[in-house]
Amino acid sequence: MSGPWVEKYRPQKLEDIVGQEHIIDLLKHYVEEKSMPNLMFTGPAGVGKTTTALALVKSTLGKYWRQNFLELNASDARGIETVRTNIKNFCRLKPVGAPFRIIFLDEVDNMTKDAQHALRREMEMYTKTASFILSCNYSSKIIDPIQSRCAIFRFAPIKGQNVIKRLEYVANEENFEYDDAAIETLVYFAEGDMRKAINILQASASMGEKITEDKVNDVVSKARPQDITDMITKALTGDFMGARDLLRETMVSQGTSGEDMVNQIYQDVVKRAMEGKMDSEVYIDLIEAIAQTDFRIREGANPRIQLEALLTKFL
After folding, report:
1. Can you tell me the distance from the alpha carbon of 124 to that of 121, in angstroms, rounded to the nearest whole number?
2. Domain 20-154, what fold?
3. What are the start and end residues of each CATH 3.40.50.300 domain in the chain?
4. CB 112 within 8 A of CB 18
5. DSSP string, the chain
6. For every one of its 315 residues, what pLDDT tens digit does the chain have, with 9 covering 90 and above?
7. Where are the domain boundaries for CATH 1.20.272.10 in the chain?
8. Computed from CA positions of residues 126, 112, 49, 157, in that sequence, does the dihedral angle turn out positive or negative?
9. Cβ of 312: how many Cβ atoms within 10 Å?
């Protein structure tokens, strides 16, 4: 296993990107026209924003993409000086063997407001020679003048079946055997984050020749999905002591944190409601109780006491 699999299997072409077909189809038109507006990619982590930006740059600029491309991570270079020096100096230069230059700013929602206003000015001045691709988790943190100058693409969490296909492809390429249950567990814990899924897969593979469900659970250090389901089922059927014992066993033996337990309980309750296994009135009451428990734990309350109190709401 040489190097991170995330980088080794990062898609290099737009058509290889998984799970964002509606966005890729639109971006291909920009490549064909050799022209594109300023773009903003927004969405949760690990869904392909940076990968899509790099693939778009390579497809648009061709063999001279390195000479005409500037990549900055705005979480590091977040001040106004970065805009006034690095970005401004790059935009002043003429493109080499390409129709225009491209500046990619990752995590731009971490830039200060002053830096964002300076960036807006650069976007205005160099419209003929440079295009900007901005990437962020929360577009609401970007000032309106920048948002209005960009075509905004919202990346969604990657669907389970797409994550499964990619994980199976990577495992087969690395000649590792795997259980279907292990892949399903990976998808459960990844929650639509492809980068997270592949990292867990690689960590699980380092523990032996075959990737199993137990290895995945050991790597993740969260409660097993089946244990959460059993605990909630016991609570809903009136077996509070059985549910409490399972809660304590999970938190002690598996070392699951209170925040992770709340998130997994929430996932299970939502799944039951979506599958029609829980009445809407019960679901509403439980979601409110889960939200209160989450707030109390984050404010510093004892997680085990709060979670046991939460189980009483299921009775």
Report:
1. 5
2. Rossmann fold (3.40.50)
3. 20-154
4. no
5. --S-HHHHT---SGGG--S-HHHHHHHHHHHHHT---EEEEE-STTSSHHHHHHHHHHHHHGGGTTTTEEEEETTTS-SHHHIIIIIHHHHHSPPSSSSSEEEEEETGGGS-HHHHHHHHHHHHHTTTTEEEEEEES-GGGS-HHHHTTEEEEEPPPPPHHHHHHHHHHHHHHTT-EE-HHHHHHHHHHHTT-HHHHHHHHHHHHTT-SEE-HHHHHHHHTS--HHHHHHHHHHHHTT-HHHHHHHHHHHHHHS---HHHHHHHHHHHHHHHHHTT-S-HHHHHHHHHHHHHHHHHHHTT--HHHHHHHHHHTT-
6. 468 999 999 999 999 998 889 999 999 999 998 889 999 999 999 999 999 999 999 999 988 899 999 998 866 666 677 777 788 889 888 898 888 999 999 988 888 888 888 889 889 998 888 999 999 999 999 999 999 999 999 999 999 999 999 999 999 999 999 999 999 999 999 999 999 999 999 999 998 879 999 899 889 988 999 999 999 999 999 999 999 999 999 988 888 899 999 999 999 999 999 999 999 999 999 999 999 999 999 999 999 999 999 999 998
7. 225-312
8. negative
9. 12
CATH topology assigned to domain 225-312? Zinc Finger, Delta Prime; domain 3 (1.20.272)
Place of tokens 């979480």: 75
Residue identified by tokens 């050991």 is 218
Which structure tokens are listed for 196?
Answer: 């997270």
CA dihedral defined by 284, 289, 291, 297, rounded to 10 degrees? -170
Q: Which CATH architecture has domain 160-220?
A: Orthogonal Bundle (1.10)
